[in-house]
Amino acid sequence: MSHFRALAGALRGGSFLLRGRSGVGARYNPCRGCSSGAVEPSLAACSSSYVEEMYYAWLEDHKNVHESWDAYFRNAQATASPGETEERRPSSLLQGRGMSQTPAMSQKVVEDHLAVHTLIRAYQVRGHHVAQLDPLGILEADLDCFVPSDLITTIDKLGIYGLEESDLDKTFQLPSTTFIGGSETTLPLREIIHRLKTAYCGHVGLEYMFINNVEQCQWIRQRFETPGVMRFTHSEKRTLLARLVRSTRFEDFLARKWSSEKRFGLEGCEVLIPALKMIIDKSSEAGIDSVIMGMPHRGRLNVLANVVRKDLDQIFCQFDPKLEAADEGSGDVKYHLGMCHERINRETDRNITLSLMANPSHLEAVDPVVQGKTKAEQFYCGDTEGKKVMSLLIHGDAAFAGQGVVYETIHLSELPSYSTHGTIHVVVNNQIGFTTDPRIGRSSPYPTDVARVVNAPIFHVNADDPEAVMYVCRVAAEWRNTFNKDVVIDLVCYRRFGHNEMDEPMFTQPLMYKQIRRQEHVLKKYSDKLISEGVVTLQEYEEEVAKYDKICEEAYTSSKDEKILHIRHWLDSPWPDFFTAEGEPRNMSCPATGLEEEVLRHIGQTASSVPLEDFSIHSGVSRILRGRVDMVQKRQVDWALGEYMAFGSLLKDGIHVRLSGQDVERGTFSHRHHVLHDQEVDKRTCVPMNHLWQNQAPYTVCNSSLSEYGVLGFELGFAMASPNALVCWEAQFGDFYNTAQCIIDQFISPGEAKWVRHNGIVLLLPHGMEGMGPEHSSARPERFLQMSREDPDHYPEITGDFEVQQLYDCNWIVVNCSTPANYFHVLRRQILLPFRKPLIIFTPKSLLRLPDARSSFDDMSSGTKFSRVIPDAGPASQNPEEVKRVIFCTGKVYYELAKERKQRNTEGHVAIVRLEQISPFPFDLIKAEVEKYGNAELIWCQEEHKNMGYYDYVRPRFLTVLSNKKPIWYVGRDPAAAPATGNKVTHLAELKRFMDSAFNLKAFEGRRF
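The line above is the sequence of 2-oxoglutarate dehydrogenase-like, mitochondrial; the predicted structure tokens follow.
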């Protein structure tokens, strides 16, 4: 009885909730005698009258009571004497407190049924721990050889459940939370255990019971527990074999032809190719038109050849060391490149576009990029549920567990503005990192445990059982299409060679690789299986092998004719309507970026209003809107309004604008307020930007998760999908991009050079030394400038539209605007240029509200454009020969210099010139300014420390302009390790010191150049 009470207590705790398959609970469900409202029968706590009431209800319709009571009454009646059955009185069937007439054995019937239910649940929850997942048979996939005691169902262990050997042949009612019975509702215990082991302890291990959705759990149970469900037709098996032949023979061919080359082959997980093709087939069948994939380098060439179907000769020619590059895009190795290809899916006879994203050796860095590109394609084709476009990510086990961007990316999966409505993750689980044993490489039982945070089911499968793999992939594709949620396939395999083909794995894993050398290839095992089954003959198998070998040989011969590598053939994000067929811009000019005043006024008025009726806004926001009205009347804009006008005007022209990042809707500095919140109605919002014009493009502004690496990668991927969009990512503070440095270093800065891939992503990085300490001051401009591709010692030839040509030749554009008008122009120029380059903008903090930092409509009107350099417009510029010093600067420090100059009354002797576009360096305009003030000494002034900021970048370029005949002196903070001081007094002292130097006309006398 104590065991029964323990079980009932567990059930009352909600760990074993039984419901009908329809999801509707029984009419007589809670037990009246139990204060906790238990859902299972507890005879000791039930009154005789209540039991009688349920019994008569059961006689009327067995569905009127809970399934457990139904089972109880059935078994009690089955063991009653004929007279008792005919009497049909519950008192003769029950035993318990106050029910002495009930047979004692009825109590055990109930207890045994509950024990069997608990046994079933144990396999559903923990069966994967004893599944036969390792093809090598030497490791445990969960890193633990311990078998949970409740899964040891040998005769001597049945006592854990209160069962005995004699119970093995007894028949038990199956709960509705299992499908092991198929069409049967009762089974002998021996058969129950057999079917549970078949479903949960074979070559597939299932983790799904942590999912808090009954429907989803039942969906998975039905697909894995139903007897005989994992069956394939002869035709399906032949297709699988053919795909396995292609996967295996491709690797064999590369190994024969280029034995000394790194290939990062797929040996040991050849089943990945048919697995991916199964996912794509089932997804295409469900209506998917486009699949965007990301993966590390292992197996990439095989995926390109046999999944994306890149021409083999194009792959083979890359192994030729004499191959010349047709363009600068040949900057990465063959196993990092991608491709986009539209083809017919032969299984569904539907067109499908497959895009494999290029990825550097930062293995998981591509994950958020793929998600962003997927989201963009869904957005542009109106796919709001992910029924046409999907993402497919392939991972390595060590990287999936070890790299934090995986967690950041997975956590985007349910966010409205970032969700791609379900991603299929395939983990190629080598059971080893480079040389690192998984027991040292991770703390979690499985490499896939990170996916549990979003309730994604995880299907572990032995990769040497191709049919089990295919079934798991089929179910995963169906899951994604049904529930639009992430799912993980853990392909437990091995790596036949080392990290690359030149590596010696025996140094560090001798026992594993002794076993691997003895391991029969999966193709051999599976072909033997099908031959023995009579599915194929040996001759048919050999002909299939010979056919693919011939294809490879012919492609190899053809590849020798290739003399030039065209990297554009490997482009994963083509923009066919934007560039010419040769991949060049259609023109090399940029129109003026100014606007008619009526357009400026219209945008300003909308930005100052609430388009919705009966919408209550915060009094502080009302004050901000009134301030905007006042500025529009005065024909002025501040920073927020300048941005509003840039975005709004692009929307008018059909350009989608997307602004993403932490707290961007309001703005970190409470200046933007692009999303208004009703103060009376919860979650009611208004985005005035979407009410500007009747047929405007949509404006997307979305607060992101507290992630930089993942979100910046996502926005980069979004910007890859189309050139006709302004995609902006804003850091909460400029230096927060530190944790996204990988995306900047590996994708944004060198993306075009490595992959001929243009991208117009805009980074907005709040920057400025304002006494806020080292963490909230510097966006580290020196890093971006150091990576700018430009020769500081070469003065370029100034011909044609030099500004546009210079932008085309650079790898990215770096600006630090000092006026709202220039910010407005540079955002519009980003779209009006005939090509796309990443744009890095160091945005202000204090200038957001500085009265002096406002612009007139005149600076934004028709015919105006972005000013790469803003010359001095005061008295100094009117008498340049009288000027003794020219201070060049950029950004916020200009206003501090201008204020200091006025206080010192030196406006006629000191000119201040603002460098707005830092890279590419405006050689032509700087030369004009230097020549204008021929008698003046030249100063570069920055608020950043000398070893940071812009000085190391601008100094050699100034000297090139000056032909090294004249110095340019540095004024600013001394070198330091931290980007800013955390002490306000020290900050002000530093500011005063370099201001004194800037205006001390004798400060540099006697110094050597």
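Note on the example: Residues 1-49, 83-102 have pLDDT under 50 and may be disordered. The chain has 33 helices and 28 strands.
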